[in-house]
């Protein structure tokens, strides 16, 4: 029998290892362990939130380059990055209260886009703007530290 026929026969043949009970139980336990270890938790929720802020910064920093959504590639970057951002935020909200997710996302976006605008467009913030941004960051820190909301 040539190699090709052996591969087809092996592919179509009954998997006899399924009849081995110990192996089946071990395989089942391994798949349950892998599934449970991949479940979303608070750590992943915060990681997703940080990544969402990064995608929001990509989207917002590219928005000016779309020229009112008349340029294709910058427009695609904006839309795709924002969709990814919202997808990640929706998963973060499973473990972090909605208000805290939104406050963190907005504050991270405001501070991040201010820094990007200073570097990319030479839009240097003045002292009152820096004080206001600092108050936003302090507010988000206070909201995080004083949070006792149970997510359901």
Question: What features would you describe in this structure?
Answer:
With about 150 residues, the protein is mainly α. It has a domain at about 40-145. The protein is built from six helices and no strands. Helix 3 packs antiparallel against helix 4 (about 70-90).
Counted beta strands:
0
Structural class: mainly alpha
Low-confidence stretches: 6-14
How large is the radius of gyration? 25 Å
Q: What best-fitting shape do the alpha-carbon axes yield?
A: flat
What is the distance, rounded to the nearest whole angstrom, between the alpha carbons of the first and last residues?
61 Å
Number of helices: 6
pLDDT averaged over residues: 82
Sketch the major β-sheet: none
Helix proportion: over 70%
Strand fraction band?
A: under 5%
Pattern of helices and strands? HHHHHH
How would you describe this structure in keywords?
6 helices; flat; mainly alpha
Brief overview:
This protein has about 150 residues and is mainly α. It is built from 6 helices and no strands. The protein starts with a helix and ends in a 7-residue tail after the last helix.
């Amino acid at each position: 029998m040539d190699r090709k026929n052996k591969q087809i026969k092996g592919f179509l043949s009954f998997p006899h290892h399924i009849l081995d009970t110990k192996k089946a139980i071990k395989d089942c336990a391994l798949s349950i362990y892998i599934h449970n270890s991949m479940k979303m938790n608070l750590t992943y929720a915060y990681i997703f939130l940080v990544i969402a802020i990064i995608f929001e910064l990509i989207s917002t920093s590219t928005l000016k380059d779309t020229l009112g959504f008349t340029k294709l590639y910058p427009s695609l970057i904006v839309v795709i990055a924002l969709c990814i951002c919202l997808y990640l935020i929706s998963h973060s909200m499973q473990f972090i209260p909605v208000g805290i997710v939104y406050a963190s996302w907005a504050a991270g976006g405001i501070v991040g886009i201010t820094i990007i605008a200073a570097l990319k467009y030479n839009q240097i913030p003045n002292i009152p703007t820096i004080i206001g941004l600092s108050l936003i960051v302090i507010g988000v820190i206070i909201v995080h530290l004083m949070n006792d909301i149970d997510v359901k």
